[in-house]
Specification:
407 residues, alpha/beta, eight-stranded mixed β-sheet, two-stranded antiparallel sheet, 19 helices, 10 strands, 14% strand, globular, binds S-adenosylmethionine, WH-like_DNA-bd_sf, S-adenosyl-L-methionine-dependent methyltransferase
Amino acid sequence: MDCKLEELTALAEKIEAIVNKPETVTDLKNEVLRRRLREAGRKLSLAMEVTGDTVHRINNTQLQLAAARIGIQTGIFNTLAEANGSALTNSTLAEKTQVDPALMKRLLRYYQSLDMITQPGDDAYGANNITRALTSLCATSGVNFFATIIGPSYNALPEFLQKTCYAAPTDPSNCSWHLGHRTDLPPFVWMQTHPEELGYFMPWMATNRDGLGTFHDVLDFEREFCCRDVTDEQTVVFVDVGGAMGHQSIALRQRYPDMVGRVILQDQAVVIERVGESPLPGFVETGIEAMVHDFFDVQPVQGARAYYLRNVLHDWPDHKCAEILANIKGAMGKDSVVLIDEMVLPERGAPWRATQADFTMMASLAAKERSDTEWRVLLDEAGFKIRKIWKYTDECEDCIVVAVPKE
Ligand SMILES: C[S@@+](CC[C@H](N)C(=O)[O-])C[C@H]1O[C@@H](n2cnc3c(N)ncnc32)[C@H](O)[C@@H]1O
């Protein structure tokens, strides 16, 4: 054994001291050290598991999502977070949320056991960083989205893969989603007639990278693509293809408030209608234009400086990506680029957030997250060359890929 017993005892005591007083570390601002600590802690916990821990933890992964959803639905997490550091009793929480006190007790007992809340006394419950995270829009949309849209697709995956002899799914018209949801419609079409689920999906798209960097951290868009001498008010500088409610267009406008030129959001009709009905803050104010466009049709905006695709190509298998890219290529001018904002998976040690996303794509869309080699092959076959790839997150291996036509 490499570590001596006394060293491990001292380590355990140090960790316990931190865990008993988490405020000493939870407001750590150094993001690199923060990530090191949480990854090391997570891996240490897994390395120390005995068989029963592993099996019971994995058996109950679905319960965590279901229980989180109940905490969100009932307002338990909100109520605890709004108590501003004060602990609440079981009966207060039951009264405020209209939950049977007997059920409340069992919920709270479960939440504290997974550190989703704190329990400073026998009948005293408080909020921690996880409780507060579960009150965010990222959590409220994401938990509901995964429970209703992704969950059934995940559940059906073993049966689907067994039936298809463990072939990597590439047919978006027949994948685990269809088996899990008992539908012939693909998810983006299905959601057109399921407004509640679309209402989970849209904010999830806008918030699922909250707290991480953006491509603006590594690429100065205005300087690279919008020099004043070649850009005027009429120049389309940014087309946000499949841009959902336009959160990336808004981020661009806010990053470069003096940038000259037009910014256009494109998405399916049902999404653009939502943008019209309830635009995100900043959308109208910054003059972003919304346009219905199916990216399997000819791209109507010619000669834009940048056609931006964020988390769009990962929704599609290679042959469908080639169609999307061909439509953009046909509209590009001599100064146009395609900006692909996606994960680029490393060959070794891909992070868990990225590998999970890969399975989300597989299960719901017969699609995938791609490695550097896979991106190069896909773009090459679609007639593009990569000018540069910048990585901007470690958590998801998010990168901005600048691609231009080969000739
Ligand atoms: C995974 S989301 C990504 C949204 C946004 N780009 C982002 O990064 O948050 C994929 C988007 O593609 C849109 N979409 C799906 N099929 C489409 C189609 N055929 N034409 C245009 N948009 C489509 C969806 O409505 C959705 O907004």
